[in-house]
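Recap slide: Arabinose ABC transporter permease, sequence and predicted structure.
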Amino acid sequence: MRKDTAGPGLLSVLLGAVAVGPLLLYGLSATSEEIITDLGINEAQFGLLATVCFACAAVGNATLGRLADRHSDLALMTVIFLIASLALGLAGVPGGYLVLVIAAGLSGIAQSFPNGVTNRILLERVPASKRIGWVGVKQSGVQVSQLVASLSFPLLAVLLGWRGTALLAALVPLVLLAVTWRILRRVPPLHPRRDAASSPAAGGPSTSGAPGSKPGSGTPSDSGASSEASAPRPAAPRGHSAAVWALAAFGCLNGIGVQATNVYLPLFAVRELDFSLVLGGATAAVAGVVGVTARIGWARVMARGASGPLLLLVLALTALAGVGAFLGADATGWPALLWTAVVLHGASALGVSVVLMSVLLRSIPSAKMASSSGVVTAGMFTGFAIGPLGMGLLVSSAGGFTLGWIAVAGVYLLSTLLAVLLLSRRRRSSGR
């Protein structure tokens, strides 16, 4: 066993890999008014950029995961950063709306690999005592990207225009790529890589999400005092287990609610509660800040051995309460209810991905991590693509935001029921 060399440098690389893909979309959103005016497009056409991005990410995660399993960490990280840089650079090239659509699609493809390869790096290069905690930090890369782009793109666009800002931002992934080459070569795997057949954790993910044997090692989980820690795992089935698909379904449902809320939150604040444009934008920023804190916090809870399905149930119920607060704000016009809803949304729905990835880390061998993570992430991105379209149609109908929030509540209710089923299955399995 080699000495632990995993430190802040590697953690920064993992966070950067998760953050660079969404950078273009958040930057475009932050300068949307200038882009709409410059290109002469309407709001629906601008919204299509997000749909194309998330759809490409969903397809990429679903189809490229197994391919990723067969390539090295360095090769996959190189692909991530180069495609992200290409997307930003293409957005900065003078051209029409179609060019921007293509750039958005490339940005989505850049989001097809990060979860799988970063999870595999955690399994192979980071000690078990650090893994779950690091998941929370690296998964917060999406919210970090949102904050950085929302602050920097509008300021730089005043000086360089939105295209010049995109071109300048294209350098960021290249700098991160250079750092990645240096760091990954200095942090070797802790153990020789094993294939799925020889790994003692080669069984599919348990629906409990409880800590069991660590993939790639014969030692019990650092977090596990439960009886499930020593429970034998079944032989790995062909393809992905039912539990992986269940996690993907939960991610899809949660993703619908997340993006239906994120995309239309500022508009709701401005239109229904008479917030200013700046204060309306602040609602999304606050949700992002709470989301970063939530992801790190929920990762720490998972690291202490909490049950994955139980946490998913708590998060689903909290998100449902948040939608109730949105409906209350819609009915009464009280700003306090809106801010309560924003905090509940950030603390719950935005924290789901770290729980999903932590469950995978507990139960999937490194040889299958990229493909299994790809399936779950594809589920999330499918939800991301559906949410804004569905919410937009409902908001523009006679039912307005009231109907939209009721629909989001229905989605979170379904995710609550799915979490109950997963928890029930876990309890039945532990009782055998």
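Confidence is low (pLDDT under 50) at residues 195-239.
The domain at 1-191 is CATH 1.20.1250.20 (Growth Hormone; Chain: A;).
(End of recap.)
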